[in-house]
Amino acid sequence: MSTSLLKKAYDPENFRREGHQLIDLLGDHLKEVFQEEKEKVIDHATPTEELQYWKNYLEEGVAGAWPEKLLEHSIHLHNPRYMGHQISPPVPLTGLTGLASALLNNGMGVYEMGAGPTIMERLVTDTLCETLGYPGEAAGFLTSGGTLATLTALLSARKRKVGHNVWENGSGPALAIMVSEEAHYCVDRAARIMGLGTRGILKVPAGKDFRIRTNLLQEVYDKAKADGLQVFALVGSAPSTATGIYDDLEILQNFAADKNLWFHVDGAHGGAAMFSGKYRQLLKGADLSDSIAIDGHKMMMMPAITTALLFRDKRDSHNTFVQKADYLLQDSSDEDWYNLAKRTFECTKYMMSLHWFVLLKTYGKGLFDEFVTTLYDLGHTLGEMVAAEPMLELAVKPMSNIVCFRYVAGESDAATLNKLNSDIRKKLLESGEYYVVQTTLGGTFYLRTTLMNPFTTKEHLQGMLNRVKHLGSGFLGK
Ligand SMILES: *Cc1c(COP(=O)(O)O)cnc(C)c1O
C-alpha cells in the first residue's frame, strides 16, 4: 500500500505554509468587514443554488482555493451590520485557540486525555460560580451547547428531587416541570426526552411584557398536583430567546424553594450579565438557583459551541450520570473531579476550556463586562430609536440586546401587517446589506434583531431602520 497521500496530508511544512496563508486571508477579511469595505453581511442564495455550487466545486468545475470560496459563501458575523441571531462574532484570539484545540485534539473524557485543559475547565467554571455568587461548594463543567446543558440540568434535578430513582429503576410516578410559555424550545425537548410527555410540561402563561406571570405559579402547581403529577423543577429564562426579556428570577426562586422544586436558570444568552456591573441585577435570584447554563458562543465572544453548566451543590454535578447508589450515600463529592466524562453527557469533547481560559488570562473579566454592557446599552438605544419612529412599533421595551419591532405606518389590519413585515424581512435578506431575523409573537410577525457586534453604532442602527421604512413604504405604495 502506498502511503504517499498520508505523507502529504501530515506534512508539517504544508501545514505551516497553508496556515500562514489562511491567517493572512482571515486577517484581511476581518479588516475588510470591520471597515465595511465588504458591502454585504450575507450573500444569500437558495439551498438549491448553493448545492449546485458546492457540487461543482467538489467535482472541480470551479477554480480557486477553499478558504476564499468559504468566505464568499458564509455569513459574516464581524460585520457591524450583522444584527440577526444570537451567535457572537468571536474574539479573533479564540479563532487561534480553536485552531490549537482542533490540532491537538485532546479528547477530554479522562484526565490523561487533556491534563492542562481539564484543569483550565475547573478554574474557569470556579471563576464563573464565584462571579455569579454561588457558595464555595458550587462547581460546574463545560458542555456542548445550551440545549444539552438544559437536558443535563433537568436530569440532575430529577435525580435530586424525585424519590423514585428513574435512572436506576425506569419510569415511576408521573412527573412534571414548570416553565414559561416563552422559554426556549430546548426545555420542552429535554422534558420530552425524559419521558415527561406533553402533560409533564406545565407552560405558565407570560404577560404582555413576555415575562412569566408569577401570580399564576400557585394555580398551575395546584392543578398539576390535583391531576396526580409530581412537579420537580421550575425553569426561568435569563432572558427568553425570542424577546430578550428576563423572567423575575427572584420570585421564581422563592416559589421553587417554598415547594422544594429544583430551580434551573436558562442563562444561555444572558447569564453572562453576571460580569456586567450595570446589568448584573437582571440575574438577581440566580445566585440562589440550583443550576444555571451560560453559552460561551453567545454573549461571551467565543466560537460555537461551548456552554458552562454550573451547580450550586457540586454533588449534583457529580451524580447526574452515576449508575449506582444514591448520591447521598456517597461521602466524597470531590471524587474524580478531573475525569470529566463521568459528569458530562459527552464522552469525547473538544478542548473548549481553552477559549475561556485564554480570554480570562489575556483580558480578564473586564472584557466580558465591556461586551455585555456595550451590547445591552445598544439594545436600549435601538428600543428608544424605534419608539421615537411613528412608522414603527416595538413588541416590548427591550431588557437586553434583543429587540423586536415591526413596520406599521398607521396600518391596522393584522394579516396585511404580517405579510408586509414578512416581505420586508425577505428583501433585507436578499439585499444582504443588513442581517436581521424574524419572530412571531402571539400571531404577530416581528423583525427581530440581536445586537451581537460591539462595533455596531447608532448610525448603523439608523441605517437599518431607514432601510426598513423605505421598503415598508414601497410595499404599501405610500
Ligand atoms: C440559544 C439558547 C438556547 C440553546 O442553546 P444552544 O447553545 O444553541 O444549544 C437555550 N436557551 C436559550 C434562552 C437560548 O437563547
From TrEMBL:
The keyword Transmembrane does not apply. One of its GO terms (biological process) is carboxylic acid metabolic process. One of its GO terms (molecular function) is pyridoxal phosphate binding. The keyword Lyase applies. Its cofactor is pyridoxal 5'-phosphate. It holds the Pfam family Pyridoxal_deC. The modification N6-(pyridoxal phosphate)lysine is found at residue 298. GO terms for cellular component: cytoplasm. Keywords: Decarboxylase, Lyase, Pyridoxal phosphate. Transmembrane segments: none annotated. InterPro entries: Aromatic_deC (IPR010977), PyrdxlP-dep_de-COase (IPR002129), PyrdxlP-dep_Trfase (IPR015424), PyrdxlP-dep_Trfase_major (IPR015421). Belongs to the group II decarboxylase family. This is L-2,4-diaminobutyrate decarboxylase. It comes from Zeaxanthinibacter enoshimensis. The lineage of its organism: Bacteria, Pseudomonadati, Bacteroidota, Flavobacteriia, Flavobacteriales.
